[in-house]
Amino acid sequence: MKIDVVSALDLSPADIARWSSLQVGPLRLDSPFLSPRWTQAVARALDATGKKASDVKVAILRDDTGQAIGFLPSRVRSDVGMPVGAPMCDYQALVAAPGVAIDPRQLLAALHVHRLDFCHMQADDETLARHGRGQADSWIVEAPDGYAAYEAGRRAAGSGVLKDIDKKRRKAEREVGPAVFTALSNSRADFEQLIAWKRAQLVATGQTDYFRTPWVVALVDALFSTRDPDFGGGLYSLHLGGELAAVHLHLRGSHTIHGWLIAHNAAFERYSPGLMLFQDILKSMDGGPYVRLDLGAGDYRFKRELSNARQTVVFGFYGSPSPAAFVRSAAYGVRQMAEALPLGRMSQLPGKAMRRLDLLRGLH
Known about the structure:
Layout: E1 2-7, H1 13-22, H2 36-48, E2 56-62, E3 68-77, E4 80-82, E5 95-96, H3 104-111, E6 115-122, E7 132-142, H4 147-156, H5 161-175, E8 179-182, H6 188-204, H7 214-224, E9 227-228, E10 231-240, E11 243-252, E12 256-264, H8 273-284, E13 292-297, H9 301-306, E14 309-319, H10 323-340, H11 349-363
Parallel strand pairs: 4-6, 12-13
Antiparallel strand pairs: 1-2, 2-3, 3-4, 3-5, 6-14, 7-13, 7-14, 8-10, 9-10, 10-11, 11-12
Helix pairs in contact: 2-7, 5-8, 10-11
């Protein structure tokens, strides 16, 4: 098997078409984060803000006839490959024809790196996922038969979340005014309000404000404006009594909406407007191309209650004998040892430190 490596913005139309065709079929590969359009959008955002678009590379696996049978994008910095678009990227995987796997040592050699890091690698990826050092659940709503069937399934599973949302919606409309849902909104004002609310949320919770990073701003702005049928952003909003109550910017694949940036107006918090908006999005999927709403990783109550499916993602790395791999292995060793000890919150500190350093490394 041969591996070609090209810069993301130098992908040929034929390779882009082939990559996209490999996403058709397995629903897990329908994610917008696994699209060549995502990889190229990140490269363009880096280029537009003075970063090196050429750092975003794609390893293309080819069979003996020269046919592309797999694609793995990576942002290469020094001797380490990172997920493209991290920390804004919720999935990684080798997008490949069924049954295709490769020795990851060949990927290291082709990309000229000593280490490949991943943070949301799909667990059924046959090339890198087995080198994971931990895992998490990504929560998914599957609704191929429409909202009514999904609602009945949630009720049968003993979940009362949708009934509670209905009650809060009626209460909000009595006390505030009509609830108005807009799908694929073009409102620049609502988009800017989402960013403002999201930034305030990050600051209030002591998290890194990634909107201080120019390439992130450029990426989010570009995706808001991208409305192609099989890829792009989707701004969804809910107004109560004429006032913006909740707004989400999600990414769209051919059949998947992936939850990405969500925020709500604190003045309406008692009505759970964010959940109301998720319910509206699910209803709007009826009769359209979308059959799943991917809520992403993170053990939040609303994700557990809304979801009816899960996908495991793993974090870890694969490396060759080198200082880069040694340092990463040592860091995971400290993390795993701390997490195994009965230290309460203290046991989580090494993991939090690693995640924060990875976030800053990705933003840089």
